[in-house]
Design goal:
This protein has 2 domains: 1-78, Serine Threonine Protein Phosphatase 5, Tetratricopeptide repeat; 81-178, Tetratricopeptide repeat domain (Serine Threonine Protein Phosphatase 5, Tetratricopeptide repeat, Alpha Horseshoe). Helix content is 83%, strand content 0%. The protein has helices at 3-17, 21-37, 41-57, 61-75, 81-97, 101-117, 123-139, 143-160, 163-176. It starts with a helix and ends with a helix.
Length: 178
């Protein structure tokens, strides 16, 4: 990623943290324009993923899905498995939000498989992918696979010290118990 694109992406992330979505979108759009001009595939993928996140924050799932799917296409051409897994998981999350549970499944399977195959995967990233997959399995009417995924996510959230994640897993597991 070129330095200028990296700085714009970082500015977009900072604007999102400040809850300034319009500013964040401007930064990500500027990053995307420069990345396209310079054939910076990694930078363009990061800018598109950033745009996708802001669109999702704003409840605009159609544009969010388009941006993340474009980022995934680009990331498939790079040696960036953790970035790819992250973007694929977001595609799956958006599909679940839209109620398209069947379409989400292969994306969760791919994201989880990538995370499991990468020794440097942060436990929290895998936990978040498992969480989404567990929700997808619940919504698809498959409580046993959902419970298995929730158990694993719960342990990872505990290890990461994310009480909200482990608490959610406990609540969901209690509802799934026979």
């Amino acid at each position: 990623m070129t330095v200028e694109v990296e700085e714009l992406v970082a500015a977009g992330v900072a604007a999102r943290r400040r809850r300034s979505p319009e500013e964040a979108l401007r930064q990500f759009e500027a990053a995307a324009a420069i990345a396209r001009e310079r054939a910076d595939v990694a930078g363009l993928a990061a800018a598109l993923a950033g745009q996708g996140q802001i669109e999702r924050d704003l409840g605009r799932t159609g544009p969010a899905l388009e941006r993340y799917e474009s980022a995934v296409e680009l990331l498939r051409t790079l040696a960036a498995p953790l970035s790819l897994a992250h973007a694929v998981r977001h595609v799956a999350d958006i599909l679940v939000e839209r109620g398209d549970f069947a379409a989400a499944r292969p994306h969760y399977e791919e994201a989880v498989a990538i995370y499991r195959s990468e020794p440097s995967t942060p436990g929290l990233d895998l936990a978040n992918a498992l969480r989404g997959f567990a929700i997808q399995r619940e919504m698809a009417g498959l409580p046993a696979p959902a419970a298995s995924l929730w158990h694993e996510a719960r342990e990872l959230y505990i290890t990461a010290g994310v009480a909200a994640g482990s608490d959610e897993a406990d609540r969901r597991l209690s509802r799934l118990a026979p």
